[in-house]
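Action item from last meeting closed. Structure (291 res):
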């Protein structure tokens, strides 16, 4: 099992003047601790239940580019980008830029978007849920085309691209891995089975077992190799080591390969010491069925 973190709460000691130093240091410590990926949110207002909307929030890809300059090995991604926030051709170019400048370390995290207040507040169109999922699928298709030798047009219901040109191509091979966030059983997990390299779901071992069973059924229906999809779960971080390791063992037993900790204070170096000394090595020893 691998361990990741997501930097969700950006209301940190020292306030905005120290956000750069604090987050750069946290990413470097995460890398030193042996974590697999540092994730950031792709939001413009803080989201519930983490905090009120007027708490600090940074634009995700600018932050990832900053963190790339403070690290050398750890992977970087948004958990996850809302499909409504950027035109897909420009979004794919943004992820490609991150991948090239980081030396091939970018993830492409994507989802259907949900935070209506943020959309309305900043004047971003917020289509009905069905349309958001249609746009999500078209964006995935555009990304795969732009990260291929096919530079031709793309004609979808919502997006029309005359040239899917993307030069330079990503350094990741064969392309940046795709993560689709969310656990919706009819649409989201089916899109994971169709297009993604990883899922990201929420909940304890029982919830994960159920969701992964749904994903497996979609894979069987579509002829996709279930084992080729990385199974990731987001869970709260806490410093009760025994309880934490028990939770990881339970998740590993149902097939979870990567745990993404949320709620970790990135300014407290003791958290990274705990991860490095105990959590990461113990997690690496866990057996994950089918991994």
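Sequence:
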């Amino acid at each position: 099992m691998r361990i990741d973190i997501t930097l969700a709460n950006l209301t940190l000691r020292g306030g905005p003047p120290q956000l750069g130093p604090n987050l750069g240091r946290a990413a470097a410590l995460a890398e030193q601790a042996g974590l697999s990926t540092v994730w950031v949110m792709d939001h413009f207002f803080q989201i519930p239940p983490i905090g009120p909307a007027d708490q600090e929030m940074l634009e995700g890809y600018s932050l990832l580019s900053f963190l790339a300059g403070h690290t050398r090995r750890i992977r970087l991604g948004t958990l996850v980008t809302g499909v409504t926030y950027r035109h897909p051709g420009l979004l794919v170019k943004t992820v490609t830029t991150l991948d090239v400048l980081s030396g091939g370390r970018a993830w492409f995290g994507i989802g259907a978007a949900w935070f209506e207040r943020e959309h309305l507040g900043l004047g971003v169109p917020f289509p009905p849920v069905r349309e958001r999922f249609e746009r999500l699928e078209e964006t995935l298709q555009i990304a795969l085309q732009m990260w291929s030798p096919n530079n031709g047009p793309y004609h979808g219901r919502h997006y029309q691209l005359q040239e899917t040109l993307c030069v330079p191509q990503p350094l990741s091979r064969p392309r940046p891995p795709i993560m689709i966030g969310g656990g919706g059983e009819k649409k989201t997990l089916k899109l994971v089975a169709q297009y993604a390299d990883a899922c990201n779901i929420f909940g304890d071992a029982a919830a994960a077992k159920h969701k992964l069973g749904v994903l497996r059924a979609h894979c069987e229906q579509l002829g996709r190799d279930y084992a080729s999809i990385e199974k990731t779960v987001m869970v709260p971080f806490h410093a009760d080591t025994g309880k934490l390791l028990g939770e990881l063992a339970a998740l590993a037993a149902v097939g979870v390969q990567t745990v993404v900790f949320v709620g970790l204070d990135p300014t407290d170096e003791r958290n990274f010491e705990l991860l490095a000394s105990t959590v990461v090595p113990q997690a690496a020893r866990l057996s994950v069925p089918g991994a």
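Note appended to the action item: Residues 257 and 288 are 6 Å apart (CA to CA).
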